[in-house]
Amino acid sequence: MTKISDSKTRVDYYAEIELGGYLPRWFINHELPKFMSTSTKWQEHFQHQRKLNQLTVEDGKNMGIMLMIKKKEESVEKRLEAFLSKNEALQQLKLTRFPQIDVMVLALLQNKLFHKKARGGNKVAVEPQNSQLARIFRSPVSAVRTLNDLTEAEATKIGRSFKLLLLTTTEPAAAVDAWRLDNKVLVPLFADHAWFEPMINAIAKQVSEPSERALWKTRILADFKLTHSDSLKMRLASLRSAQLLQSSNLGLKWRVGLGVGLSMMDMISDSGVISTYQASGNTSEAYSLIAMIGSSLAAQILFTYAQNIKKSKWVKLRESAFIVTLLKPAVDGYRVATGHEDKDSTVNPLFEMVMGKMAELAFESIPGGLLQAYMFINSPEKTTFLLISILISTLTTGFASAMISYDMDVSVTTRKEVPLFYGYIKDSNTERGITFVLLILLASLHNLSRTIGTALLLSVSKELTFGIILAEHVLYHLYKIVRRDYVVWLVGLEGGVKYMVAFVAHSAVKVLVDYTGERVI
Which of 230, 255, 357 is nearest to 299 (CA)? Predict the structure, then answer.
């Protein structure tokens, strides 16, 4: 223990059981968390002693992590009841301002769209009386009401609505922001208590409820500080420990599964088309489609190299392996949904995911759809398989384009950085769902219209078609150079890599704008 000031003491806690290197690493990793759990218990104990008016942003993060620590065979209700019985700040908030905070937090922690009725015991019953879907999509609680006036049913509805927002956003912070805007009655809680939003953010990142033992493993050799007041009560001031990357249950599975599914479906359809072309003697078209797939993978590998340029070659190889095995969309979706942070990466996970999708669309899906449309128009045998492949490519392109627009717009970071552009998607669940469907339809129809038009022009004159496309791209790149906007946004890259990434990225954006109407600031 080291005295920092009259009101602050630093505590360093270490445990080492290597015994001169004779113990195997797996045994150390298995047993060391047991020794380190002591320091975490200190942290939890003193955190509970904090008064409501003393809580800070760091306190909110710590309380959120503590609420998500799941002990073996312990229900969510018992966990919350035990937490509230010890935490003086939340007890004070419940008595003075928000009587139903325990009900709302319970519904939020359960993290389910539908709940079964509680049977026996002292569990809080949160089963709605009417249709569950009707209650989920019902309009938010009126802003006229206050936190003190909320009923148990209203508090339950507010807490439960958070799950649906996790399903319709990529980032935990975006879901929290939408939840705040969607429930105006909570605005004073967010505004007056700086710790509340960090607490909900921490819960959103760890909604898969990690086990207590798993969380200890993330706190080995954590460097933390403990401070005390005049009454010698100590509190946690800073927790510097790695957090497990947790999932948002159905929302994360949906995004990861969808990313893998779309990539696989598009690749399978492309493989079928290549096989069909080769069987019919159209080998040049088959090789062209293979080249498009190769260019897409090459562009994604370039972006990945730039993203991990500060890291080791093994990290670069691992990330490249994700690309060639078609797992990159799933990995990106997982990192975004879990709020993954990496200070050594060039851009944040959301932008990395967007760049990967853009490369796949611009260099594979859109050119491949154009080639297939051209072949269908000029083929004497217009098979159903070729038509279905064109429609799959169109819908995949529209869906991926809509996801780019949606993910960028609902991101809290992009809304703060570019408020004049982002924010066109409303914050309620129903409006977000409708907007997403319309984005898919607009992008798909735009893509189909432009693809058919270009394919018809290509049938008339290949030279004229490629000449127009090349001229458009040259003018676009010159326009960016004249505006001095060609590489200025590539912070962290230097030399030839910067200009290669800029050239590929601008080319991809041009294709997306032309064939989907996509626009990314």
Answer: 357
